[in-house]
Write a structure and sequence with these properties.
Low-confidence stretches: none
Oligomer: single chain
Helix content: 25-40%
Strand content: 5-15%
Mean pLDDT: 75
Largest sheet: 2 strands, parallel
Amino acid sequence: MGVQQSDNPNLLRAALDAGIVHLDTGHIYSRGRNEEMIGGVIKGRPRDSFVIATKVKVITQGLAQSCRVVERFSQRGPFVCCCT
C-alpha cells in the first residue's frame, strides 16, 4: 500500500479483491499490528492468491542470531531469504 499508517482491513480487502497480490509488511509497521491485520484479512483466502514480503532487522544481534530468526520464518512455509 506504500504507507505505514494504512491499518484499515477494508482497504486491504479492496486491494486484494482488485487483484493486488503482493503484500509488503514488516514487524516494525504499527508495532507488529500490521502483520496481525494482514493475517486476519487473508485468513480463508487461497494461499496461492497472494505473496507476502516481510523484513527482519537483525543488525545488532549478529550473524548467528540472524540465522535463527530466518530459520523460524522458514518453518512457516515457503520462504525466500534475501540479504543485502
